[in-house]
Sequence to fold (289 residues):
Amino acid sequence: MKFDIGMRIPPKIGEEGIRKAAEWAAGAGLDVLDVPELTPEVKAACDAAGIRVGSVDARGIGQLLSRDEGRRAHAAATLKKQMDDMAALGGRILFVCLVPEDVTLPRREGFAIWKETFPELVKHAESRNLYIAIEGWPGPAPHYPTLGCTPEMWRAMFDAIPSKHFGLNYDPSHLVRLGIDYVRALTEFGERVNHCHGKDAEILHDELYECGTLPASFGAKYGFSEGSWRYTIPGHGEVDWGKVAVRLERLGYQGAVSIELEDHRYWGTPEAERQGIEKAAGHLAKYLR
Fold:
């Protein structure tokens, strides 16, 4: 079974405009483009380049986890409108990172707010044939407030919302840095995977000795790092993409694996970003195509 390979649009490539980004991605052999928003212009650019739209970033998620009921209601109405507009243009995957607007909000309290807010939104997604994919980035230090980045939280969420229209954006890089078995997680929760990111993480053992799993006191030595780990392109970290591919195939996963470029070696210029995407796609293709 072959899987589509795509990308989230890195910042420098994105600055060149959606038309050029779509044309370059298609020319690089990618199948899917994840976009920050889905508009008629974005849809037309992807169609013209012969590349499909992957995930679309949800707006206003922080307010959905606000302690203020009025702010939550406004954010919910805004997100429903986004779902309607997205569905009308053929979008299917809504990418959601559940970071509250108050990053000091304890996850337990955030979960209680989420449990009140999200069932209605998932029903709306179902009615529009959309699939929500929650991102596993734990959020900013030192509070790490993001909901939905550990198996403990996934079980509670999926018990509260059994619908497969609410599921995961599987990104093994976050699991690696958290010390969570990324293969076991895919085995246990694979049926709830609605989207995947092609991103990796390297464990920096010298830095792990220096500061343990705590963020470095005097700043990380590398970009996209907090000390004992760094995000990388696939092939430069700990993830065995062959094992990931086998499990995605067994699960019957039909979506894409989209490269999320967060690697300091391939950053800062359009040329560096293109090189990083090409290297990442080449490594993933060994296992996914």
In short: DSSP finds twelve helices and ten strands in the chain. The mean pLDDT is 97. The radius of gyration is 18 Å. The first strand starts at residue 4 and ends at 8.
